[in-house]
Write a structure and sequence with these properties.
Elements lengths: L8 H12 L6 E2 L19 E5 L5 E8 L26 H13 L5 E5 L6 H18 L5 E5 L6 H10 L2 E3 L7 H7 L5 H20 L1 H4 L9 E3 L11 H9 L12 E6 L8 H13 L4 E6 L5 H11 L5 E5 L5 H6 L2 E4 L8 H8 L4 E4 L14 E4 L3 H13 L1 H13 L6 H12 L5
Parallel strand pairs: 3-4, 4-5, 5-6, 6-7, 8-9, 8-11, 9-10, 11-12, 12-13
Antiparallel strand pairs: 1-2, 2-3
Length: about 425
């Protein structure tokens, strides 16, 4: 593998933007079209992509690799050591020059920087750090930066990079250790998970420790993302969901008593009036619980008001949105669904995958997924029914454990049911 030393900046850009196009943490258009006489504009297949800033805006980014040289040989990657492709690397100054020049011309609002591994993870992460530091300090660049953390790099360098970048990501690569071993033998799950956990912890600490960070730099304010290769190895949906559930949770469900979870858009269909009435009754009956809710929606203000009206501020917690709900499902004791109607309850299927007993209202299609008193309880569509179901699972441990045992035995593969869900989408019945 020979790095081309004599390339011009433009030639390096052609190679390293092309090599970056396979990273889908942000997306390239993939269109390659020359300018035409009498027409305005052209399109190139790589180089610029779009992503979302912390405030939700869609922004254009210069998308490049620092280098396409790599000491590893991941079989799915164009930059793998054994692949015979032209190799090159930017210098930190070249990354800064390109970013600033593109920015000044108004082509981009930020930078997406990933890299192959040059010499070692530490060496590469340090080069990325130097580029970002120069960009922020010397070139005074205040635009958006999304950077890839290199698994295996020293946590101290990752921490420093995180204070300069807006978003960091680490590729999860493949859902299982076995898949990783067969296609990326130089990588290990623990080395991939370590920086992911570090970034997540940095974000969480910042959320809870506002004061120390108040006047200082913020750690990856736009958050963390990841990507996983699906279909290259024979893992099924269950293995992927299980894998995702083992990642660091964005929200810790740390109540010392009964933990309930509901995932669903805050709207009429999801029956939050039923959930709140059930919560009110549980509290009235002296049951200690915390009911966590994931997702947002138009009823947010109304639900907040009802929480206050019922005095449920400590019991009914609206967490908001997370890209990976599985660690939260894993942490809860009971998954509760209070829908008034559903084509298919995807969250119920996901909870069952993770062996969580379900309490759900009896919406029309409920028995396509539920076997009453086997994988959970199906209740009447009102607060009393739902509260009774939850209380029953709490007070009848034999029933609770029998349900967990049943769920453990349930066939889990390519969530026959998730496949069914996709069929429903095709027919026009979607998940919230
Ligand atoms: S470490 Fe990254 S760049 Fe190197 S071969 Fe593997 S996937 Fe490709």
């Amino acid at each position: 593998m020979l790095i081309q030393e004599q390339m011009s900046l433009e030639e390096k850009l052609a190679v390293l933007s092309d090599a970056a196009k396979y990273d889908v943490s942000c997306t390239s258009s993939g269109v390659d079209r020359k300018g035409k006489k009498g027409m305005i504009g052209n399109a190139v297949s790589a180089g610029l992509c779009h992503s979302f800033a912390a405030d939700g805006r869609c922004i254009s980014l210069l998308k490049i690799l620092f280098t396409n040289q790599c000491i590893y040989d991941c079989r799915y990657c164009i930059n793998r050591r054994s692949n015979d492709v032209m190799r090159t690397a930017f210098t930190p100054d070249e990354v800064c020059t390109l970013t600033m020049e593109f920015y000044r011309r108004n082509y981009i609002e930020g930078l997406f920087l990933s890299s192959g591994i040059l010499h070692s993870p530490d060496y590469t992460m340090d080069l990325i750090y130097q580029a970002l530091r120069k960009l922020r300090v010397q070139y005074r660049f205040n635009g958006y930066i999304h950077v890839k953390a290199i698994p295996g790099a020293d946590p101290v360098i990752i921490e420093h990079v995180g204070l300069l970048a807006d978003r960091m990501s680490v590729n999860l690569e493949l859902p299982t250790a076995q898949g990783l071993k067969s296609l990326a033998p130089s990588k290990s799950r623990s080395r991939i998970l370590a920086p992911m956990r570090q970034i997540q912890r940095g974000i969480s600490t910042q959320r809870t420790e506002i004061i120390p960070y108040k006047r200082g730099q913020r750690f990856v304010p736009a958050g963390q993302s990841t990507q996983m290769i699906v279909g290259a190895t024979p893992e099924n949906d269950y293995q992927m969901i299980k894998r995702m559930s083992e990642l660091e949770p964005e929200f810790k469900l740390d109540a010392p008593h009964l933990k309930l979870l509901t995932i669903g858009r805050l709207d009429h269909q999801k029956g939050y009036d039923i959930a709140l009435e059930a919560a009110r009754l549980l509290k009235e009956r002296g049951i200690l619980f915390t009911w966590y809710v994931l997702r947002k929606g138009g009823l947010y203000d109304e639900i907040k008001q009802t929480i206050q009206k019922y005095g449920l501020e400590k019991e009914f917690i609206l967490l908001g949105i997370t890209a990976n709900p599985y660690p939260m499902i894993k942490q809860c004791d009971i998954y509760v669904q209070t829908s008034k109607f559903e084509g298919y309850g995807l969250a119920i299927a996901e909870a069952r995958m993770l062996n969580k007993p379900v309490v759900t209202t009896k919406f029309d299609a409920v028995f396509n997924q539920m076997v009453h008193e086997k994988n959970g309880l199906v209740t009447t569509m009102d607060g009393v029914g739902v509260a009774d179901g939850i209380e029953r699972l709490l007070k009848e441990p034999d029933l609770y454990h029998a349900i967990v045992d049943y769920l453990n035995q349930e066939k889990k593969g390519n969530v026959e049911e998730i496949a069914y869900f996709y069929q429903l989408i095709e027919k026009g019945t979607g998940r919230s």
